[in-house]
Amino acid sequence: MKNRWRRCRRSRRFWLISALCLLLCMLLAGGALLALRGDWRYRIGLRLRRYPAPELTAQQPQDGLTEVGLEELLSDPRVSVTADLLLINGSHPVPDGFSPGLTDEGGCPMLPSVLEAFRTMNEVVRELTGTRLYVLSGWRSAAEQEQEWLESGEKLAAKPGYSEHQTGMALDVCVVGYGGMSFLKTEAGRWVNDRCGDYGFIIRYPDGREEETGMSYEPWHLRYVGEPHARIIMESGLTLEDYFAHLTPDTLYASGEYYILRTAAQTLSVPNGFAGCTVSEDNCGYRIFTFRMG
Ligand SMILES: [Zn+2]
User: Fold this and answer.
1) What domains does the chain contain, in order, with CATH numbers?
2) Phi-psi region for residue 17, left (φ > 0), alpha (ψ -120 to 50) or beta?
3) 171 C-alpha to center of ligand 1: Å?
4) Non-local CB neighbours of 182 within 8 Å, separated by 6+ positions
5) How far is the CA of 205 from the centre of ligand 1 (A)?
6) Which residue of 4, 69, 169, 293 is surrounded by the most CB atoms within 10 Å?
7) Separation of CA 222 and ligand 1 centre (Å)
8) Residue range 115-171, pLDDT digits in tens
9) Structure pTM?
10) Three-state DSSP class for residue 79
């Protein structure tokens, strides 16, 4: 009886030590894989990241406001009309008759403002990482989008009429040999995902936000929204849908050297002495005015 008890204890100890060894091996193997796979480390870091509240403060300018009619404001030489903030998703299609004025980058059509921002960002990427970004896809016609939708499926490509690519404001980018999810294996890809907000771009379909955006994570799909919107969105980990929910209509928000007003009004209260202003429809019934003060 005593011998059986000893044998039993020895057997339990054996299994306990074996289980601990197995656990240790798994931890070491996991650690080695994480050390090798920068993309996995990056995605784990993304999931653990805590974001601050958006840098938007409802605030009146020190120099006061002036009431101006919409027509008069749109004819002001300091004001330019863009389409930077059009919301395009499964329930907000590309507006009827939308016709972007495109320019061509090595066979990839896109909006001139998008090309300029992309070139600036690409120069910084080259200086910091020694590699260049390439555009795999810029503007697409409805027929090209239909082809993409049929080939990729609806989780990775929007249906025709509902794609940002049809506006010329979206770019699918890569590093040579690293397209799609592999983009995150490169230093350049991770840098772009962290810093594109400084150049007017957002990661339009972030990790884990499929319910809001309707699309799976696409670290290669950049959407141009311009300053300061891109910086606010990226620093706060928002989707474009989230961001619009933060912009209460007819409230003037301050963010750095900018004031932002989302409104459908025909008479507006605008900050005195603004240096420049862009106006974009948001595809939800409002216009978004972005006043630059500096
Ligand atoms: Zn895309």
Assistant:
1) 58-85+246-294 (no CATH), 97-224 (3.30.1380.10)
2) alpha
3) 6
4) 39, 189
5) 9
6) 169
7) 7
8) 999 999 999 999 999 999 999 999 998 898 899 898 888 777 888 999 999 999 999
9) 0.87
10) strand
